[in-house]
Amino acid sequence: MAEDKQLSGIRKVVIAGTGSYLPEQILTNHDLAKIVDTTDEWIQTRTGIRERRRAADGEVTSELAAHASRRALEAAGVTPEEVQLIVVATITPDMMFPSTSCIVQDRIGATNAFCFDLEAACSGFQYALDVAQRYIATGDVEIALVIGAEKLSTFLDWNDRATCVLFGDGAGAAVLRPADDGQRGFIGSVMGSDGSLAGLLGIPGGGTALPPSIESLQRGDHFLKMEGREVFKQAVRCMSDAAGRVLEKCGLTIADVKWIIPHQANMRIMTAIAERLDVPIERFYLNVHRYGNMSAASVPVALDEAARDGSLESGDLVLFVVFGGGFTWGATVLEW
Ligand code: UT7
Q1: Which of 67, 102, 115, 263 is catalytic?
Q2: Mean pLDDT of the 86-98 span
Q3: Looking at 29, 102, 115, 122, which residue is catalytic?
Q4: Which listed residue, of 9, 142, 231, 299, carries a Cα 20 to 30 Å from 281's Cα?
Q5: Which residue, by CA, sits nearest to atom 19 of ligand 1?
């Protein structure tokens, strides 16, 4: 098998443990039909979503992240003090700054880590994994904690049926360390971005472009906006292409991959990708029906569930494929 050029000659990196956390409150489609003009039937047929989680008032992103992190550290048999790097992927930070990763560091007692947030919207966890594993591959870091955490419910317009039914809150985390002899771990990745389409998906207000003001609050600039139909088309195209490109780069075919863990935005997007890759949908690990789209948290939560329910076995090849605002997209292959 061809090696990832960027990684040849340096250390291999594995995921040593995963964890996730979903807030207690479940919002079903029927609950939403009481708030906006929608139906369970519309949401299920158009998206595959049945329910999603909603964090409690005051339960902030760093708290979701800390719960998931503690579980990942326990699964990996690593103490918080051993963690040298924390990367949090999020579009719903606790605040503009300091970074959510620094707040997570304090919450879990990872006193020896350096910390930063990474923003690549729904692609964030895959981007963060990629960055963190390179720190380990080069020998600069021994143990890294990579987290995808979102409290999207804060940024949803609960009067907009086109967006509020799609998203949920949650967090997932993975502990990375150097591979033991014979372990392959991360094999390769590809990533891409297209800023010319930035306006199709995002939270426009609250930054330097549209600073907070009474008018911006009244306009709802601080809520998530999406041109769903156009985003859908781009998501299918970019995720299918990224999956194909990473397999080619690694000298693999889709038949070599046991599990595809995609960003979970819409069941119809995943079905379309499965058709394009000519692979049965059963090889996709799916949880969109239970959690909706959790942005950067979708992939790590699915990964943790696949690890804990026995779907993933040692030696399985796993393909992550993601797409999100920016636009950003990417795919990673690793051996579990
Ligand atoms: O995570 C980052 C990536 N995000 C995504 O990948 C999301 C991509 N987009 C999508 O998943 C889909 O485009 C949506 C699920 C957002 C929308 O599905 P769609 O099949 O593209 O529907 P649409 O936007 O074309 O809307 C069809 C109709 C419209 O009514 P008219 O204009 O045909 O009368 C909407 O007003 O459905 C209406 N509609 C709804 N009806 C009932 C939109 N939202 C709802 C709703 N309940 N919640």
Answers
A1: 263
A2: 98
A3: 122
A4: 231
A5: 229
Q: Which residues contact 163 (CB under 8 A, 6 or more apart)?
A: 156, 157, 223, 224, 225, 226, 228
Are 324 and 212 in the same domain?
yes
Q: pLDDT tens-digit profile of 202-250? A: 999 999 999 999 999 999 999 999 999 999 999 999 999 999 999 999 9
Q: How far apart are CA 135 and CA 129, in angstroms?
A: 10
Give 264-296 as a DSSP string.
-S-HHHHHHHHHHHT--GGGB---HHHH-B-GG
CA distance 141 to 213: 42
Give the pLDDT score at 181.
Answer: 86
Domain that holds residue 45: 5-178
Q: Which of 158, 178, 198 is the last residue of a domain?
A: 178
151 and 213 housed in the same domain:
no
- Give the CATH number for residue 331: 3.40.47.10
Q: Which helix (H) or strand (E) holds 21?
A: strand 13-21
Q: For residue 325, which atom of ligand 1 is closest to its CA? A: 2
Decide if 29 is catalytic: no
pLDDT at residue 3 tops 50: no
Q: Are residues 172 and 192 in the same domain?
A: no
Protein residue closest via CA to atom 16 of ligand 1: 228
Ligand 1 pocket test, pick from 35, 197, 232, 237 with the greatest ligand atom count within 8 Å of Cβ, gives: 232
In this structure, what token pair is assigned to residue 294? 């959790």
Residues 254 and 130 in one domain: no
Gap between the Cα atoms of 180 and 101, Å rounded:
28
| Residue 263 known to be catalytic | yes
Q: Same domain for 77 and 194? A: no
CA angle (43, 49, 50) in 5-degree steps = 90
- In this structure, the answer to whether residues 9 and 113 fall within a common structural domain is yes
Same domain, 174 and 69: yes
Query: What's the alpha-carbon Rg for the chain, to the nearest Å?
Result: 19
Structural domain ending residue among the three candidates 178, 194, 226:
178
Residue 28 alpha carbon to ligand 1 centre in Å? 18
Neighbours of 9 (CB within 10 A): 8
Query: Is 250 designated active site?
Result: no
